[in-house]
Write a structure and sequence with these properties.
Number of strands: 0
Radius of gyration: 16 Å
Largest sheet: none
Strand content: under 5%
Number of helices: 3
Helix content: over 70%
Length: 71
């Protein structure tokens, strides 16, 4: 299952860049990005799921408008 594989890979990266394992500023930035990506794949609350659904809808809507109407 592709989402589970990606989740596992993100978890491994999160461990690598976790502040306890790497105290550099760059690692902290990567850890935040990885955490956000993980949340997108594994939303935990209704609000997060709704936000992701709405963002996906708007992204698809905007692409459709651009593709078909030149907007």
């Amino acid at each position: 299952d592709q989402p589970n594989k990606k989740s596992t890979q993100l978890q491994q990266l999160a461990l690598k860049y976790h502040p306890k394992n790497d105290s550099s500023f760059q690692a902290a930035e990567k850890f935040i990005e990885i955490s956000q990506a993980y949340e997108m794949l594994n939303p935990t609350t209704k609000t997060e799921k709704k936000r992701i659904t709405n963002n996906t809808f708007m992204s698809d809507f905007n692409k459709t408008m651009k593709d078909y109407m030149g907007i």
